[in-house]
Amino acid sequence: MSQTVEGAKDFMPINGTDYLEFYVSNAKQAAHYYKSAFGFKSLAYKGLETGSKELESYVVVQDKIRLVLTSPLKSGTEVGKHIDTHGDGVKVTALWVDDATYAYNEAIKRGATHYMKPITEKDEHGEVVRSGIYSYGEVVHIFVERKNYNGVFLPGFVVWETANYNPEPVGLKYVDHMVGNVALGQMNHWVKFYEEVMGFTQIMSFDDKDISTEFTALMSKVMSSGNGRIKFPINEPAPGLKKSQVDEYLEFYEGEGVQHIAVATDNIVKTVTELRDRGVEFLRVPDSYYDVLTERVGKIDEDIEALRPLGILVDRDDEGYLLQIFTKTVQARPTMFFEIIQRKGATSFGKGNFKALFEALEREQELRGTL
Ligand code: FE2
After folding, report:
1. CATH number of this structure's domain 172-368, picked from the four choices 3.10.180.10, 2.60.40.1120, 2.60.40.1930, 3.90.79.10
2. What are the per-10-residue average pLDDT scores of the chain (371 residues)?
3. How far away, in angstroms, is 60 Cα from ligand 1 center?
4. What is the dihedral of CA 357, 358, 361, 366, to 10 degrees?
5. Which of 88, 139, 173, 340 could form a disulfide with 24 if both were Cys (CB 3.0 to 4.6 A apart)?
6. This model's pTM is above 0.85
7. Domains 14-159 and 172-368 share a fold
8. Ligand 1 centroid to 261 CA: how many Å?
């Protein structure tokens, strides 16, 4: 692993993740899943009742995390084509900026591929400016400028009221990082894209010796925005004896895309207990992982016997430690999943858990016949 710490030229300050939009085949049911299983609350809606004739979107929220679930209302839409190719998946990573026109112009000037020119949308709550560029695969970044807006989400959406059903949150706070899988040989291309177009800095890199098992390997570089609020690790497959999880993703997603979204909690034991009680499925490492845990990471605040039954993993770096766990994939295709992470000083990504995790993933692949 190597670390690069020289400061990014932050010509594009990003305040945070504004929202993540998934294109899914049944937005209404997906929204219900994120509410009932992940503890999100209803926030906003657009569809036939609001004059949206082609697309229906449900927006759910938990603390700083907003998910938009979008489905087509007819055949032949861009959203429908996206779903036909990729299955359910992340289309938009929206980034909250102070000036969406400036962000777009800077990105285009530096070589970004155009997705959406700056547009101003208005309603009785003010106005929002949005613009967009392409990232890897068909994923796009939309810049959102909302300083002149005090509505619930975006113009065009109405409040989605579900007074009789809003499950308790599970303690998810914000998006910690979002990982992309790109094709063999493409990782450095996208590293350069984030450096040159977005002003990001590479803060870590892992080669196939760091991330490998007996059978499979991958490589990864972590890109960070200038202020550190946005972190995008980028994976590419590495040659191994068998097909890696990244290869499996690329095959089933039929292209590059978002592999996992890591969401932060400040009480992972409570959060994961809640998620499991609501039916969320997690990857399991062998029990022997816990027998050598203290030896590997030293003393931690949590009782290891509380982590063991939940399958929560621990890793340590120079600055502290972190606790993390990964869900199984959350749609029909074995593509995207979530990570739940609690940081106690550590700023890294759990390198010490990679091997145990990838062996757990290989067991899942084995069951699917895709290893
Ligand atoms: Fe992660």
Report:
1. 3.10.180.10
2. 48 95 98 98 97 98 98 98 98 98 97 98 97 98 98 97 91 98 96 96 88 82 94 91 88 98 98 98 91 92 95 95 97 97 94 84 87 85
3. 22
4. -140
5. 88
6. yes
7. yes
8. 7
